[in-house]
Amino acid sequence: MPRTSLAPPLLTVAGTTLVAAAPAPVAPAPAVPCGPARPRPRDRRPSAARSGYARIFSVPGARAFTAWNLLARVPMGMFGVGAVLMITAARGSYALAGAVTATGLAATAVVAPWTARLVDRYGQARVAVPATVIAALGSLSLVSCVRSGAPAWTLFLSYVATATAPNTGGMSRARWAHLFRGDPGALHTANAFEQAVDEVCFMLGPLLATFLCTSLFPEAGTLVGVAMMLTGTVLFAAQRRTEPPVAPRPSVPGTLLRGNPGLAAVLAVFVCTGAVFGSLEVVTLGFADSLGHRPAAGAVLALQAAGSCAAGLLYGLARPAGPAVARFRRCLAGMAALAPLPLLAASTGGLPTLGAALLLTGMATAPTMVTGMNLVQGRTPTGRLNEGMTLAVTGLLAGIAAGSAAGGWSVEHFGASAGYGVPAVAAALALLTATAGRSVLVADETTNT
């Protein structure tokens, strides 16, 4: 506030306090601080001078929620492989194992958007923890039914209960979108990092599940995954300062797909892309088993995820130019071109050759998913980010379910080597779907721009 006293004001010059002449009885001069200048508080916001991943992790609380989210997400890569190994060890049928996991994923595709809508409306902390507890009970029921020799239908019912597991990856992306709203460059880097985290989870998850199931007992992978999921979700939900605000009333009523053809087109592509992932997992397990090297299946699958992780991190440091729709189609074209490599490797070589092929194939995955997620975010209204990104994951899960069932059936009827034709066909379908929906995507991009 300006001074109102008639006493001579104090001025500070080069750290020395001087007395100024008494002011005339006119409007008082603005106050000047006395004494040495105090240092300004440190600005903890991300600086524009920072770049890449250092910039996004300079946000207070970002490292904490990322670490606990990682612990909660690793089990997502464990449960599918753990269930397949557990069921095949007890029942000796890849077809049954593939059908059970496919049913659970299909149920997740139905339930997950409703869970995400609750998250947007009531907040991540209030919804994620109870939803995770229900999913954990479903996994424990599956273990109990397998160990006790219960009828096959109980396996399906138990795995369906796991559909309530919240989309922890989507919740993390929603936090980044909230923190970097209005900053497309930082959000692109954050989305690339999240895709790399997904790949790390699907790299470590199968490897850890395979190790636990083969070195300890078949149910170990699922049990350890439940413990990690519960712990990680509870601690992630406790990080409240980075949690996006709730949206009690959606800005757009009804489903997000109503009147949003661009989002529907992206999700259709994600279904085909998910079929690539689901079939690769089951077919690789069957191929390693046919060679008598089942424990090595997790390591081989990890190579595919490692290639995608490396490509995702590099892609996050780039600043892609041009329309996102055109980049999306180019990424899908690269994935379709590399998808036949595992089929050629399995037909002509062993696990080392297959691992190299999967490493190369995975390099097209992360750029495709990062660009696709950017398209989804651009077509999702404010306040419904969790729902929009969960719909994207739902499309992937639907595709993973179909690919898992198709891959298991193909291994049973045509052999493990021929099963790699399923992901190759699925990748080609993803490209064709994006090409067919090009006009809708371009028009929708122009509208959003």
TrEMBL record:
Residues 1-21 form the signal peptide. It comes from Streptomyces cinnamoneus (Streptoverticillium cinnamoneum). GO terms for molecular function: transmembrane transporter activity. InterPro entries: MFS, MFS_trans_sf. Keywords: Membrane, Signal, Transmembrane, Transmembrane helix. The chain crosses the membrane at residues 67-87, 94-115, 127-146, 223-242, 263-287, 299-318, 330-348, 354-376, 388-409, 421-441. This is MFS transporter.
